[in-house]
Amino acid sequence: MNICVVGTGYVGLVTGACFAEFGLKVICVDKDVKKIKDLSNARIPIFEPGLEELVKRNIKDERLSFSTDLADAVRKSLAILIAVGTPSREDGSADLSYVEAVAQSIAENMNGYKIIITKSTVPVGTGERIRKIIGEKQKEKNDFDIVSNPEFLREGAAIEDFMRPNRVVIGAESDHAIAIMKDLYSPLYLIETPFVITDIKTAEMIKYASNAFLATKVSFINEIANICERVGADVHMVARGMGLDKRIGPKFLHPGPGYGGSCFPKDTQAIVNIAKEHTYDFEIVKAVIKVNEKQRMLMVEKIKKAIGDLKDKMVGILGLSFKPNTDDMREAPSVSIIRGLQKEGAKIRAFDPAAMDEAKKFLSDVEYCSDPYEVANNSDALVILTEWNQFRNLDIDKIRDLLKRPILIDMKNIYDPKKIKAAGIRYTGVGRE
After folding, report:
1. How far lies 244's CA from each of 85, 238, 254, in Å?
2. 136-166 burial by CB neighbour count: b if 16+ within 10 A, else e?
3. Coil, strand, or helix at residue 280?
4. What b/e readout covers 401-412, taking b as 16+ CB neighbours within 10 angstroms?
5. Are 332 and 308 in contact, with CB atoms under 8 Å apart?
6. How far is it, in rounded angstroms, from Cα 113 to Cα 179?
7. pTM
8. Is 228 a catalytic residue?
9. Do residues 321 and 390 lie in contact, with contact meaning Cβ atoms separated by under 8 Å?
10. Active-site hit among 4, 28, 228, 263
11. 52, 172, 182, 344: most buried, per Cβ within 10 A?
12. Measured distance CA(381)–CA(313) in Å, rounded
């Protein structure tokens, strides 16, 4: 089966490469000429473990190709996956202009039956919107089906999530479309992956509901952490006690500076907007968004409390990306926190294993370093913002000796406070007394 993936961003590129690994012939399409040229030479524009090797292998085996010619790709393909961006507008709603433009191009170049699959995260009702556009813009009448097939890829673990997902959600309204989708995902039947077969609107809602709930867990445990600090409890033991309850589970109960990335901030805003458009006030998720914004400023206050007056103080930052194993800086807590520190007069030096080039697009007046020890050297304090594995086993004695003042502010709680204090370093965590 030939398939076309429109959009070579994070979702589109991972999806295309993984479907090629399944043995399908995949054309990934994008308007960005330089990006397509780079991808054709297996130069990957994002940091995602294992993706470069996957792309190289499937280009070599002639299952994966890249093109700027959407018309040709549509004509050659039975299945067309839309994986373009749906950024937030100022009011929080999803901007569907890219999705609609792709739908129109598909309509104008159809040469037979096609199945059009939305991978992009889109508001409920977008499937019908695409159906209407294609129905109206076709030059010649051809049968087609619309399918919602939302992605649930974690940045840093996307290939594993695609190859061994918790579930595959398929929203469709024809048996023929469902059969094609099952064929696309046939390797997952061998590992007994659960398939959720439903209607299009329900599939679209599953994506938003999932991300909103996970964001809620993050904001909830951060609120608990803030209370723990005030009453003298240990949030890690609280989270463990909660997580062992199978009704709750341990995932996403990790306190820190708040969630970020390309999904949670955008999708929580979007689902609030969807509710508003249908005359419902989604108060829980509105509170989740508010708590997440507040958490970042609380982290600035935490740093200020640990160091004192920040004027002309050098603050060393370890970790800039919103999570480890990615270079994604979109909505990263580090951006708000660093800007907050700079507003208080602090100087910043920082290191991240993958995200420093991206960080330069968001942050100015930052001294970027080559490793954690260069960051620590002569800094007034060291702040851990992202839990990269290489930050978990630093030479603490060396860090202490390099710092101007022995202060470690561990916003991901990756170190044992007793060991850090025993090394002669003042330790501050999140949700710990």
Report:
1. 37, 10, 14
2. eebeeeeebbbbbbbbbbebbebbebbbebe
3. coil
4. ebbebbbbbbbb
5. no
6. 14
7. 0.93
8. no
9. no
10. 263
11. 172
12. 9
